[in-house]
Amino acid sequence: MITKEFAHHFAAEWIAAWNSHDLPRVLSHYTDDFEMTTPFIVTLMNEPSGTLHGKDKVGAYWGAALQKYTDLRFDLIDVLYGVDTIVIYYHSILGKKSAEFFWFDATGKVKKAIAHYD
Predict the structure, then answer these.
(1) CB 26 within 8 A of CB 72
(2) Is residue 54 left, alpha or beta, with left meaning phi > 0 and alpha meaning psi from -120 to 50?
């Protein structure tokens, strides 16, 4: 079960990892076979489903995103948590707000993430 402390620690580390532009650090939060869904996958990766499976494919997508958005910076707004899930609400790229849903496995790694934007 996810605790408030775990949720806030995860959110702070996740934001810091992205803001450092350190892709291996970002990927360290995820299982090898995790699934990522976001509208940006449609536009950046030409994948109509908006979903990628596996750390290698998502890592390639995020690597391309970090190259395209060299000024990428996330700013935390709020953190919500459930039994095996966390939602991080933050200021994202292009002036957008984002709410990202994370579903965790028993080891404390993210197995599925879904990003939402305003």
Answers:
(1) no
(2) left
Residue for token pair 């459930």: 82
Q: How many CB atoms lie within 10 A of CB 104?
A: 23
- The whole-model pTM stands at 0.94
DSSP 94: G
What is the C-alpha to C-alpha distance for residues 74 and 76, in angstroms, rounded to an integer? 7
Q: Are 64 and 70 in contact (CB under 8 A)?
A: no
Name the CATH topology of 4-117.
Nuclear Transport Factor 2; Chain: A, (3.10.450)
- Give CA–CA dist 100/115, Å, rounded: 4
Per-residue pLDDT reduced to its tens digit, 70-109: 999 999 999 999 999 999 999 999 999 999 999 999 999 9
CB 86 within 8 Å of CB 14:
no
